[in-house]
Design a protein that fits this description.
Elements lengths: L13 E13 L2 E13 L5 E3 L1 H32 L4 H8 L5 H6 L7 H12 L4 H4 L1
Antiparallel strand pairs: 1-2, 2-3
Helix pairs in contact: 1-4
This protein binds zinc ion.
């Protein structure tokens, strides 16, 4: 099989690899995916996985995204409780609709970075909530 590189378009032969371990990293968590197969560009190093390997690699990435969302949901709930806010009060504070926090904390919606950043600041400086009330 002769394939040109999808990244650099080099027509140098892609070289076959088998049974390699590649890592996926998301939000500071890294996971190794073993036994991957595919092709590597000799020019730029681009890797193209075979379909089954690509599926396994993507599934690990999806799992890491879900874990990060759960972690973020738990953090938002923890900080909201620390600030003695109801979900409705937290939603009024940050916008996003009256049930936004319910959705964030159940992992059904992803808050804007402005919301998570505000809560991180309020976690470190909870007295500042008085300035916003
Ligand atoms: Zn290439």
């Amino acid at each position: 099989m002769k394939t040109s590189c999808v990244s650099c378009k080099s027509d140098k032969a892609m070289t076959r690899f088998h049974d390699q371990t590649h890592s996926v990293e998301y939000d500071g968590i890294r996971m190794a995916v073993k036994g991957l197969a595919g092709w590597r560009c000799g020019q730029c190093g681009e890797v193209v996985f075979d379909a089954p390997s690509a599926q396994r690699y993507a599934a690990v990435g999806d799992e890491l995204v879900l874990r990060a969302r759960k972690k973020q949901s738990r953090e938002l709930r923890r900080i909201r409780h620390k600030l003695h806010l109801t979900q409705a009060q937290a939603a009024r504070l940050t916008g996003g609709g009256h049930n936004a926090f319910s959705r964030y904390e159940r992992g059904q919606a992803v808050p804007l970075p402005a919301t998570t950043n505000l809560f991180k600041l309020l976690d470190r400086h909870p007295d500042l909530i008085k300035e916003l009330a």
